[in-house]
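Sample entry (297 residues):
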Amino acid sequence: MTREILLVVHTGRRSNVRVAQEVARRFASAGVRLRVLKDEAPDLDPSCYARVVTADDRAAEGTELVFVLGGDGTLLRAAELARAAGVPVLGVNLGRVGFLAEADSDKLSEAINHVIERSYEVEERMTVDITASVDGRVLESTWALNEASVEKSSRERILDVVVEVDGRPVSAFGCDGVLVATPTGSTAYAFSAGGPVVWPDVQALLVVPSNAHALFARPLVVSPASVVALEVDPGGHPAVLCADGRRSVQLPAGARVEVVGGSTPLRLVRLREGPFTDRLVEKFSLPVQGWRGPSAG
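Predicted structure, serialized as tokens:
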């Protein structure tokens, strides 16, 4: 049976297009067919692919995996296609930090070899399901890998919200926004907002206020089975709900957003063994001079 992979590329950079052509050549020589997205095909040489597909829920159906060339934004875009088809994602970072990527550009050849030889593992990452409503009427239902954020819709205004966990109010305050993140998302927007780093194999939800005007506005870590709700003050200003920085919907005053552990995880390809600690130190260039390690005795 012919093997097939969906290639997703950040084609906005010419250097990425050249990398994609090399990737296509390597896979083709190993008998692996590539399909590409309709919006990206015009930027790629036709010799790079065997099939062009629309970027919808069926784009990755029947593929072995989704191979991503770009940064975290490109991987999040690819994740929407992969999750719908239940196939794993392998990211090669051609951007900056690239926390979600499994390999950096200098390990591209190695990553291709792992795929050709099928020498890789797949792990599941927790997602969140999100429902926005007003007066019981659903405005939007979506999901996120990193976080759901409810933010003020106008820079000069304050967003007044009430945070609720498992049907009980926790705190009300004015803020720029509130994030509900997964452990995977703890190194993304939630980290920038002052949230804790949570190891990805921990099952939990993070609630992280952004620039809150309150004495009690610390990040919360709650059960993965919890229901976290954010209520926008009905007498206040409208807000914006954003999922992974990619999908957004306007929220009127009085809207309610509920976030729960996702029903469908995202599958990520892993090529190397090693603790998350090493990845954290590497990606953030953390100082570890002076570390001696556990005693040999």
